[in-house]
Amino acid sequence: MKRYRDFGIGVEGTILLGLDDHTEDYIRRLIDFLLEIELDLAEFTVLTPFPHTRAFAELQAEGRILSYNWNDYTCDKVVFQPKHMSPERLQELCDEAWKIFYREKPQAYRMFELFKRVIYKEIADGSFKRQRRAQANRKFGRTRHKSSFGERPSVC
Question: What domain range includes position 59?
């Protein structure tokens, strides 16, 4: 982590919880480790066995899929039976991971700190450019437009 920081690089970890070898003790030690190495940001997700994946096929074959409500497949809800704990306990541990990791500095503040480091680095090396704010409120992505043929999606 120090070498990344020395070069002005922030590090965000995406942490997947709920694999078959994960125990409660393992998850707690993982959170402690992430705090120890001073990871800049962390994104905690729960294993989500999306249809047509190997994880889904294996968990389904083992009778461990608990929900087929696709609205639950959000990467932050437990939809399967973990091997070493109850689904409720895994959900609690995921929620705890977020709270513990961001206890001292909230996520938004940590993101601000990273952004500030980038700006200061750019000012120092002369590469900083003020951004045009004209597009700040412009919508990007898919929108719906009405036409004589009805509603149709279009890309902005």
Answer: 2-125
The tokens describing 41, both together, are 């940001």
CATH assignment at residue 72: 3.30.750
DSSP-assigned states of every residue in 60-116: HHTT-B----GGG-SSSS--B--SSS-HHHHHHHHHHHHHHHTSSS-HHHHHHHHHH
Q: Is the separation of the CB atoms in 31 and 100 below 8 Å?
A: yes
Q: Residue 32 domain-assigned? A: yes
pTM of the model: 0.77
- Cα distances from 146 to residues 47, 150, 155, 156, in angstroms, run 39, 6, 13, 14
Neighbouring residues of 28: CB distance < 8 A, sequence distance ≥ 6: 93
**Amino acid (1-letter code) at residue 10:** G
Run means of pLDDT, 10 residues per run, the chain, 156 residues: 82 96 98 93 97 97 97 97 98 97 94 89 88 70 50 44
